[in-house]
Amino acid sequence: MTESQSFPDVVELNVGGRHFTTSLLTLTKSKDTMLSAMFSGNYQAIKDQDGRYFIDADGDNFVYVLNYLRYGELPPSNLATTIYREAVYFGLHGMVEQLELSPALLAQIHRETYRAQFTGYHKIINSILDRIKECSTKNTETTTSLLIVLFAKTKKRKLQNFDKNHICFSKSKNRPERLSDVTFGPWRNKSTTEKDVMNCVTFDLKEKGFNITQEATGQCGFKCESPPENTGESMVENCTHLCYTLTFHWWKM
């Protein structure tokens, strides 16, 4: 059995290299937290070479954790998402609940719920990033453009010879034909349009720091004609998938 560890009333801490002095009462004030467990005496807390109790966390962020324990004070609103991670890490349930009511966290939770309706949404972001990395090793221009093809639902085809596995492409009078770089769809919520998804993709890429613009370039140019042996009236069926050009501006940061 491990012998219980005792702590002084005033505790010296080393949190990620930053030093703090606080009371044992403050550290154990909130029950069922990592800190209260660490300084309960039931576990062997490790010390650094100078005898300070070591906590493997971000020292700058720990300031706000300590202020919450001391005064019940929350961090500035612009740091809510950053300190939320620390509150979860240290098991500060009261702080977590209060931070989840902040505008930044509510917006984050809403965006995650919104994205969840698109099965494989994060894969499309990764596919775009993989494709842009591939293109950037060959591109000598100041911008890089990708053709993103989206479709909210799968349409039942009228022509039996319509190739469902065709590669979508964009075709217009003033531009050369361009094949799809990334194709995505369908998704559960049919009221969410292709434009809505494209706006979500653009927002998330901008959040990562990219300078990008998007442009709707119309429907896919693929079409299928009824076979020659068709004895009825000839018919042409077009692909209804929508195309968007996503342009990365490398010289506008």
TrEMBL record:
Alphabetical list of InterPro entries matching this protein: BTB/POZ_dom, KCTD7/14_C, SKP1/BTB/POZ_sf, T1-type_BTB
Pfam families in the cross-refs: BTB_2, KCTD_C
Any GO BP annotation: protein homooligomerization
Domain BTB residue range list: 9-107
Protein name according to UniProt: BTB domain-containing protein
Source species of the chain: Mytilus galloprovincialis
